[in-house]
Amino acid sequence: MIHERYVLTAAHCVHNLKLENIKLYFGLFLISTLAQCLADRVCQERRAAELIVHQDYNSHARLNDIALIRVNEAVQFTDDVRPACLPLDYLFDESLANDARVLSLGWGTMSDSKRIVALNVIEQEECGEQLRKWQRFNASMLFSVMCTVGVQAGQDVCQGDSGAPILQLKDGRFFLVGVVSFGPKCGMSTGKAGMSMRVSEYTNWILTNLKRIDGGS
Predict the structure, then answer these.
(1) Domains assigned to the chain
(2) Catalytic residue among 104, 144, 162, 181
(3) Of 3, 54, 65, 196, which one is the catalytic site residue?
(4) Strand partners for 146
(5) What region holds the Peptidase S1 domain (predicted)?
(6) 104 a catalytic residue
(7) Which residue among the candidates 12, 104, 181, 196 is catalytic per the annotation?
């Protein structure tokens, strides 16, 4: 979540879905407790009011794999529900390489509880070398894709984590620096990186669409 009415996610998660089939839950930790969480008003349910998929998204090559979801009603911020900040400064990425404070969180396909994993961001030169080995490689990925590996062996983003955030804690705030897109199978200790969309490459697109929809507010 980057705004009380907007969520940033991976385009491949939503581009084939109908709006009426998309529900979003905020403040949820255990999937099995959803009904009680909603009844206690700890969790909040919203429906998708609009999908904005990047105009140059390519599903085959996973290019520009990023999308915005506008929810039907503003999310109420609480101690457990807060938006992540956007990295508006293009120099922000210089602090990312090998920064153990980068985190991701999600349920994957194997967990009832939300899990947090610590990640290292691979330097862009090494990231480019891994990207060039991918059969669908496109040169634009050298700028738009971020590579990460788990700090601990066997711990990484997993199947079902697509669209999850890559977060950096800086000056007491969490910044959304990446959106999980694709990578090797979960938990493989092969040294292969997971790939995420680099949010700093899309901030202009994000802000332009927010202004277009909200009339510049």
Answers:
(1) 6-82+204-215 (2.40.10.10), 101-200 (2.40.10.10)
(2) 162
(3) 65
(4) 196
(5) 1-211
(6) no
(7) 12
Per-residue pLDDT of the chain (217 residues; tens, 9 = 90+): 999 999 999 999 999 999 999 999 999 988 889 999 999 999 999 999 999 999 999 998 889 999 999 999 999 999 989 999 998 765 566 667 665 578 888 776 667 777 788 888 888 888 889 888 877 888 888 889 988 888 876 667 766 678 889 999 888 899 999 999 887 665 555 567 888 999 999 999 999 999 776 654 4
Annotated catalytic residue 15: no
